Amino acid sequence: xxxxxSQEAFLQTFHAEHPSVTAEVxxxxxxxxxxxxxxxxxxxxxxxxxxxxxGCGDGLLLEYLAREDGRQLAGVDLSPESLAxxxxxxxxxxxxxxxxxxxxxxxxxxxxxxxxxxxxxxxxGEIEQVAAEVARVLSPGGxxxxxVGGGAVGGEAYDRxxxxxxxxxxxxxxxxxxxxLGDGRARSRNGLDSVLGPxxxxxxxxxxxxxxLSGPVGQVWTTVSGMYDLGPLDRSTVERLREAFLAExxxxxxxxxxxxCAVKVHVATARLR
Length: 273
Ligand SMILES: C[S@@+](CC[C@H](N)C(=O)[O-])C[C@H]1O[C@@H](n2cnc3c(N)ncnc32)[C@H](O)[C@@H]1O
What we know:
Blueprint: H1 3-17, H2 21-26, H3 37-44, E1 50-54, H4 60-65, E2 72-77, H5 80-87, E3 96-99, E4 112-118, H6 127-137, E5 138-152, H7 157-170, H8 189-196, E6 205-212, E7 215-216, H9 217-224, H10 235-248, E8 258-259, E9 262-271
Parallel strand pairs: 1-2, 1-4, 2-3, 4-5
Antiparallel strand pairs: 5-9, 6-9, 7-8
Bound molecules: S-adenosylmethionine (SAM).
S-adenosylmethionine binds next to helix 1, helix 2, helix 4 and strand 2.
């Protein structure tokens, strides 16, 4: 099995069990202007009529996009379970939702004015092939708008969780560790420029946005424990991690019971020349 194939097999297995975990967490996250990261992406493609969501998951971003009249929407994802949830959304009854790989898009040339992708591009292997496929299905002048993960803000619950997770995973056998996912170049502006430029895109516009995910401790645990890394852990390891996390954030908890939690995302856009 190639490395990309084993990464994709891991993602399919994880999302079979957790088909809407990303939407459940990130639809609660708020930028300083009150928008979610899905709304930020939606606003990057205002006015684009034919829009493809790459790694659309359970279809939440497509549902946001469907609120603009007259749109033709499409989504592609590896996970049949996530797509089944997307197909149940009434707003997406006319959308073309396909099970498939971003590296081999099941769409004709020049099919879209915009391609969006929320927390998915950075998970994809063979990223040059993804860039070439996106360029193929976009019309000239079409826009690619992506949100990619940017890590912890620092000094809050997610930052502390990552410290605990690292020390927990370091002690585990390889069978309980996830494969390295995607291509690191998708997580930096220069890296994305180096991938998208040769595929025909202009310079990447790059913005880093902190998202507030603070809340009661149980909700914040749900947020941080949705990460892929917890997928292969056995129940007792997850329970130990949860107890350590609850202890670790006690001093952060405000008098009204809220735990500060935040993540950074990068919003990248580039136009096909
Ligand atoms: C973190 S989830 C995000 C889902 C959705 N975009 C959201 O934000 O709610 C990443 C999604 O990308 C999909 N994915 C990852 N690699 C893919 C690929 N090569 N082709 C198509 N989908 C892919 C996964 O199956 C998963 O549904």
